[in-house]
UniProtKB/TrEMBL annotation:
The protein, known as: tRNA 5-methylaminomethyl-2-thiouridine biosynthesis bifunctional protein MnmC
Primary gene name: mnmC
Enzyme Commission number: 2.1.1.61, 1.5.-.-
Role description: Catalyzes the last two steps in the biosynthesis of 5-methylaminomethyl-2-thiouridine (mnm(5)s(2)U) at the wobble position (U34) in tRNA. Catalyzes the FAD-dependent demodification of cmnm(5)s(2)U34 to nm(5)s(2)U34, followed by the transfer of a methyl group from S-adenosyl-L-methionine to nm(5)s(2)U34, to form mnm(5)s(2)U34.
The species this protein was found in: Paraburkholderia tropica
Region (tRNA (mnm(5)s(2)U34)-methyltransferase): 1-239
Length: 671
């Protein structure tokens, strides 16, 4: 269960230095925050020279605080003409500041430094500062070339869940005597699990417990003169004299050319094209239809919102991370002139009695900010919706509805507009099979006439049901779900202001049209419209929105109709792809052939132990949550391919792992 996040309290000492009443300690040396960062952490880790001319460099920090170390590192990166292509900065923080308090604290720091360039970076940081919610938040700057990944929560819990390869470690935080947990042996063991071979480390502290913890975790250290008259500080490197970890931290995929093939141009595939292109990859997009978003992603609108559960389940945490990341990516599309069509007025979720009790308990337990979700009475909900409602529920101010096809087109357009972009789109091509050339390290893609389409070192299947067929996976249990939606012209719900969901959904569209739906018919692949499907949609939504009662009564008195009758409603049928655990397949595919031949040894395997098919990834089975999962899924796969820090905790990524069903079969000795 996720612990409630307690923000930091903004306070200052008499000399103006930011101070923590909780830990009775200052956030930086009174002799200067920027100067301390540059002396201890940049100089102590031999930066910027160590990142020069590299493609990627990753800094890991314990204790984000005011973010001055990040700002100093970012400023040094900007000023270095031979800087690395991409800078990743990963930091943990148990008590983050609110946006307003962070802005106020940094204003004091910036006034003292008198650095206009740093003040501009501080404004960018506070403008992008995430909502104070537990979990991992990824922020991007410099067009994605500088990435800040924040893990909000207790470092003892969050740090072991991060997955990355650190090139430099900033050991920062309140004094060991004030905050001993952040300097404890488990913290150093977690750092050792993700330290790269040449990883360096630096800290202003030279306490004996710190030195002993470093040695016990495989780090060697040396004493150096401290900052501003402090006698000593510590610098060092990861140099274990024994094996200290079971799995090596991630590395980029080894390919001759950074060329990836993405199969499928729906929500998943379009997001992948943009995320890979942002990292400089050449991308070939293959789509069997004549344009993107022709299947489930082609519905007139889809709703997006988080998922609230009483125990803050893995699905809730994944969906929350995806929701926030999607909003960030959509804002970037807006800023780049590729805005998808979406609403900005929030979303209402109407509650049954049982749901209302469970969600009310979750809201009280976790103390979510009102800007994330808040409970609303029936009267409050009706004022938001602009129409009578059957009951109250909860309101997501940042939720809403979006035109999925416009989002797909926006992501592909944004990818093509990037400097030096190499995007090859092949519409009207059906993939028949793939074939591995191990000597060349390439996958060859053939169409359904068995003609070679293209070849690349990396292939990502983002084509829903066809993914399992094309990859010949036995342990990828997906099922089709038929969903029929209904469009109401001159709708009785024309006054509806926001999307409303519950046992069904209603979305206001232009020209007094309302989208309602949708049926949920497992293992039904018939794409023809059915009159009884429209009737079901009307009856279900009428129980939430009484304005449909008259329409429901009229439908109940009609003789049987068919979808071809003049009285038939407009609508659309799409097939969703789901797994048995209702979570998507996102990540590198398992090698089932190798697993069968080593099944006995792998019977107790964890995900990182499983054999993987080189260069083959999946992003499918998104069900009805593609809008909130697609962008995060694309970022996760791109990070795995590049060997970057993952955008979510490793335990959550393992819930999405396409090889999780293979792992279960191995543990059950079913191979």
């Amino acid at each position: 269960m996720t612990a409630t996040l307690i923000p930091a309290t903004l306070a200052f000492r008499d000399d103006g230095t930011p101070f923590s009443p909780r830990f009775d300690d200052v956030y930086h040396s009174p002799q200067g925050a920027l100067e301390q960062s540059e002396y201890v952490f940049l100089r102590g880790n031999r930066l910027p020279e160590r990142w020069q001319s590299q493609r990627m460099f990753t800094v890991l920090e314990t204790g984000f605080g005011l973010g001055v170390n990040f700002l100093a590192t970012w400023a040094a990166w900007r000023a270095d003409p031979t800087r690395c292509e991409r800078l990743h900065f990963v930091s943990t923080e148990m008590h983050p500041f609110s946006r307003d308090d962070l802005r106020a604290a940094l204003a004091v720091v910036m006034e003292r430094t008198a650095r206009a360039d740093l003040a501009a970076l501080a404004r960018q940081l506070t403008d992008a500062w995430p909502m104070l919610m537990p979990g991992t938040h990824r922020l991007e700057f410099e067009g994605g070339r500088v990435t800040l990944t924040l893990a909000f929560g207790d470092a003892l819990e969050t740090l072991p869940k991060l997955w990355l390869r650190a090139d430099a470690i900033y050991l920062d935080g309140f004094a060991p005597a004030k905050n001993p947990e952040l300097w404890s042996l488990p913290i150093f063991k977690a750092l050792a699990r993700v330290a790269g071979e040449d990883c360096t480390i630096a800290t202003w502290s030279s306490a004996g417990d710190v030195k002993r913890a470093l040695e016990q975790s495989g780090f060697e250290y040396r004493r150096e003169a401290g900052f501003a008259g402090k006698w000593t500080m510590l610098t060092g490197r990861f140099a274990p004299r024994w094996r200290v970890r079971r799995h090596e931290p991630p590395l980029p995929v080894t390919v001759g050319e950074r060329h990836a093939v993405v199969i499928g141009a729906g929500l998943a595939g379009s997001a992948l094209v943009e995320r890979l292109a942002a990292r400089g990859w050449r991308v070939t997009l293959i789509e069997r239809h004549a344009e993107p978003a022709r299947e489930a992603s082609g519905n007139p609108a889809g709703v997006f919102h988080p998922l609230i559960s009483r125990d803050d389940s893995s699905a809730s945490r994944i969906t929350r991370a995806g929701f926030f990341y999607a909003l960030q990516r959509w804002a970037a599309l807006d800023a780049a002139g590729h805005a998808p069509t979406r609403s900005h007025t929030g979303l209402l979720h109407l509650a049954t009695d049982d749901e209302a009790q469970a969600v009310a308990a979750a809201l009280e337990s976790f103390g979510y900010p009102d800007q994330f979700v808040r409970g609303v009475s029936q009267a409050e909900a009706e004022a938001i919706a602009g129409t009578p409602l059957a009951q109250g529920g909860w309101f997501y101010p940042l939720g809403g509805a979006i035109d999925p096809a416009s989002l797909c087109r926006a992501q592909i357009a944004a990818a093509r507009a990037l400097p030096g972009a190499q995007i090859d789109v092949r519409y009207g091509v059906s993939v028949g099979r793939i074939e591995r050339d191990n000597d060349a390290g390439l996958w060859r893609i053939y169409d359904d006439a068995d003609a070679l389409v293209t070849q690349a070192g990396v292939v990502v299947f983002a084509n829903a049901h066809d993914a399992s067929r094309a990859t010949a996976l036995d342990f990828a249990p997906t099922r089709p779900v038929r969903g029929q939606l209904t469009l109401l012209d001159a709708s009785p719900l024309a006054s509806l202001r926001v999307p409303v969901i519950g046992d069904g959904y209603a979305v206001p569209l232009p020209d007094d049209v309302t989208l309602i739906g949708a049926t949920y018919e497992v293992d039904d692949t018939d794409t023809a419209l059915r009159a009884d499907g429209h009737t079901e949609n009307i009856e279900r939504v009428a129980q939430m929105l009484p304005a449909l009662d008259a329409l429901r009564a009229a439908e109940a008195t009609k003789p049987g109709t068919s979808a071809s009758d003049d009285r038939a409603w407009r609508g659309r049928v799409a097939l969703r792809c789901v797994t048995s655990d209702r979570l998507p397949m996102i990540g590198q595919l398992g090698d089932e052939y190798a697993a069968r031949h080593d099944a006995q040894r792998l019977s107790g395997a964890w995900p990182l132990d499983l054999p993987r098919t080189p260069g083959l990834y999946g992003a499918f089975a998104f069900g009805s949550r593609g809008l909130v999962w697609a962008a995060l899924g694309a970022e996760l796969i791109a990070s795995q391919i590049e060997g970057e820090p993952w955008p979510i905790e490793r335990e959550l990524a393992e819930h999405l792992d396409p090889a999780r069903f293979l792992q279960r079969a191995l543990r059950q000795r079913a191979l």
